[in-house]
Specification:
Mean pLDDT: 76
Number of strands: 9
Low-confidence stretches: 1-19
Strand content: 25-35%
Strand order of the largest sheet: 5-6-7
């Protein structure tokens, strides 16, 4: 019995199916194969379940993707009165009412 590894999209399915062996003359040693589960973001490897936060973003490594999933903040959209305008100031993640 051999272990079969199937890669479908970003899923890896390991099965213990009986795979017929090749005749000895056709068998070839391929060495060890290392499979790293998790996500890559900007050259950094994250384990499944790991996360990080940046200034205006929350990112996590889910079990079904090889890439980090990132979300921005949920911001209320301000309703400005008088001469104020909606702006997102440097260092802030969400917009606010500001003077022009």
């Amino acid at each position: 019995m051999r272990i079969a590894i199937f890669c479908l999209a970003s899923f890896v399915l390991l099965t213990m199916d009986a795979i017929p062996a090749l005749p000895v003359a056709e068998q070839e040693e391929v060495g060890e194969v290392t499979i790293e589960l998790g996500c890559m973001q900007d050259g950094v490897h994250y384990e499944i379940g790991e996360s990080y936060e940046s200034t205006c973003e929350y990112c996590f490594c889910g079990p079904f993707s090889a890439n980090m999933t990132c979300m921005g903040p949920l911001c209320d959209i301000p309703i400005c009165v008088n001469d104020m305008v909606v702006k997102t100031l440097p260092g802030n993640c969400c917009p606010s009412c500001e003077m022009p």
